[in-house]
Amino acid sequence: MQEQKNKLQQALEHSKREKVEQEKTLIESELKQLQSQIEPHFYSIHSPMSVL
Predict the structure, then answer these.
(1) How far is CA 42 from CA 29, 30, 34, 38, 49, in A?
(2) Cα–Cα distance list, 17 to 4, 6, 22, 24, 52 (Å)
(3) Of 42, 19, 22, which is closest to residue 30 (Cα–Cα)?
(4) Separation CA 47–CA 41 (nearest Å)
(5) Rounded to an integer, what distance in angstroms lies between the CA atom of residue 46 and that of residue 3?
(6) Where is the composition biased (Basic and acidic residues) (predicted)?
(7) Could you tell me the pTM of the whole model?
(8) How many Å apart are CA 2 and CA 10, to the nearest integer?
(9) Fewest CB atoms within 10 A around its CB: which of 2, 11, 34, 37?
């Protein structure tokens, strides 16, 4: 009984770690998407302008 409980506990912990990793990957991809939307505008506004 204890062995089965330990296996279930390990499976649960593994599942939780996988979920956290998936959430982290999702958040990082959302961040990159937002950065890609912001950076082109930032650089086009703040880039040095030619006086010629």
Answers:
(1) 20, 18, 12, 6, 14
(2) 20, 16, 9, 10, 57
(3) 22
(4) 10
(5) 63
(6) 13-24
(7) 0.64
(8) 12
(9) 2
